[in-house]
Design goal:
By secondary structure, the chain is of the alpha+beta class. It is built from four helices and seven strands; from the N terminus they run E-H-H-E-E-E-H-E-H-E-E. The chain has a single domain, classed as Gcn5-related N-acetyltransferase (GNAT) (Aminopeptidase), CATH 3.40.630.30. The protein has a seven-stranded mixed sheet with strand order 1-2-3-4-5-7-6, with helices on both faces. The longest helix has 13 residues. Bound molecules: coenzyme A (COA).
Length: 146
């Protein structure tokens, strides 16, 4: 299985993926806080044969019946090849869902790629937060129930 838990040593590659995609702006300290938090699950997708083997990452908050997907990203040059799906499925498997448990997320209204990805995986929009982001873009809130 190419998905494993994120380590602090992975952060240079993780930060590089984030920077190239320019979809969020977490610093190293914020990633370390997630890696070390006992309520968070941070995973990376690793292609061992490559020189820079980390091709994607995802961060979940595990909060009993209501968990949250905080962030998911696939390296720009490896998108649409199943990496995001592998990361999402690994997180969901780890959540050990019981019937009725939910996973929530929020996404920029204009982030079509991510919205199609979430919808393909059974997430449904349930609310909109007007001007939620600093640049004034709306957020769409999604939920997936088991
Ligand atoms: C969203 C994201 C993680 C998906 O990762 P991925 O590795 O490409 O996903 P997968 O290959 O597993 O899944 C592909 C599915 O995602 C959706 N998708 C991915 N790229 C797409 C595109 N360019 N246009 C439309 N849908 C797209 C489709 O549903 C696609 O299924 P299909 O190929 O059968 O149509 C990736 O696009 C990404 O990193 N985006 C930038 C970061 C981001 O916005 N993250 C989410 C906000 S936190």
């Amino acid at each position: 299985m190419p998905v494993r838990e994120m380590k602090i040593d992975d952060l240079p590659q993780v930060l590089q993926i984030q920077k190239a995609l320019a979809f969020q702006d977490w610093n190293e300290r914020q990633f370390i806080a997630e890696i070390t938090a006992n309520y968070a699950l941070c995973v990376v997708y690793v292609a061992a044969a490559l020189h820079t083997p980390i091709l994607g990452y995802a961060i979940f908050h595990l909060m009993g019946p209501d968990s949250e997907l905080l962030s998911i990203a696939t390296n720009d040059s490896h998108q649409r090849a199943g990496i995001g799906t592998a990361l999402l499925n690994a997180g969901i498997a780890h959540l050990d869902f019981e019937n009725g448990d939910k996973i929530f997320l929020e996404v920029r209204e204009g982030n079509t790629k991510a919205r199609r990805f979430y919808e393909k995986h059974g997430f449904e929009p349930y609310a909109e937060r007007k001007k939620y982001y600093a640049d004034g873009e709306n957020a769409i809130l999604y939920v997936k129930a088991t």
